[in-house]
């Protein structure tokens, strides 16, 4: 097993791995974050960064994406701490270029580049009790994936039953525009790196173990990540 403490029965793993629902609420945020809210981390280990990008640069970086199957609106960058904007940073690691490294303690995802640097993205991560660490790999990729709540979630929160046969892809779908599905030894772990349209979730521990990037960031990472890419999740 690659995940610390991942010794639950299969049904329990589904509960841990997939986003949660608040009773009586079926909006996108409730699927992803449940009722927990986290605080952004204050430091960054292992990297040195330059000054943050300007608001104008951020607005351009996170502008609308009208060419998508479901046009993506611009991010309200005022709702994101500037330290979580996408940027290139110095990053020392023994991992090969292309490797994805998740740093849940600091709410970052890195894509290792080939010149001693990495592309760094702000992220949301698992809330308390749902964090995990270990090595995995991208077993498959999805664009505008269908999301299906597990049976355990439906029993716990019956309002999800209307999606028992799957929620089609779209802006309200919890998996968003792009999804990287994480595997280990040929088995789907049920954890994903997915696209979120909720800027206020970035820099928080709010999910049931999955890792979310802003849609514009996720599209960028997805486009540069082939199947079989190694993913390293650091201890929080």
Automatic annotation (TrEMBL):
<keyword id="KW-0808">Transferase</keyword>
<dbReference type="InterPro" id="IPR019546">
    <property type="entry name" value="TAT_signal_bac_arc"/>
</dbReference>
<keyword id="KW-0012">Acyltransferase</keyword>
<dbReference type="InterPro" id="IPR050979">
    <property type="entry name" value="LD-transpeptidase"/>
</dbReference>
<dbReference type="GO" id="GO:0016746">
    <property type="term" value="F:acyltransferase activity"/>
</dbReference>
<protein>
    <submittedName>
        <fullName>L,D-transpeptidase</fullName>
        <ecNumber>2.3.2.-</ecNumber>
    </submittedName>
</protein>
<dbReference type="InterPro" id="IPR005490">
    <property type="entry name" value="LD_TPept_cat_dom"/>
</dbReference>
<keyword id="KW-0133">Cell shape</keyword>
<comment type="pathway">
    <text>Cell wall biogenesis; peptidoglycan biosynthesis.</text>
</comment>
<comment type="similarity">
    <text>Belongs to the YkuD family.</text>
</comment>
<keyword id="KW-0573">Peptidoglycan synthesis</keyword>
<keyword id="KW-0378">Hydrolase</keyword>
<dbReference type="Pfam" id="PF03734">
    <property type="entry name" value="YkuD"/>
</dbReference>
<keyword id="KW-0328">Glycosyltransferase</keyword>
<dbReference type="InterPro" id="IPR038063">
    <property type="entry name" value="Transpep_catalytic_dom"/>
</dbReference>
<keyword id="KW-0961">Cell wall biogenesis/degradation</keyword>
<dbReference type="InterPro" id="IPR006311">
    <property type="entry name" value="TAT_signal"/>
</dbReference>
<feature type="domain" description="L,D-TPase catalytic">
    <location>
        <begin position="98"/>
        <end position="234"/>
    </location>
</feature>
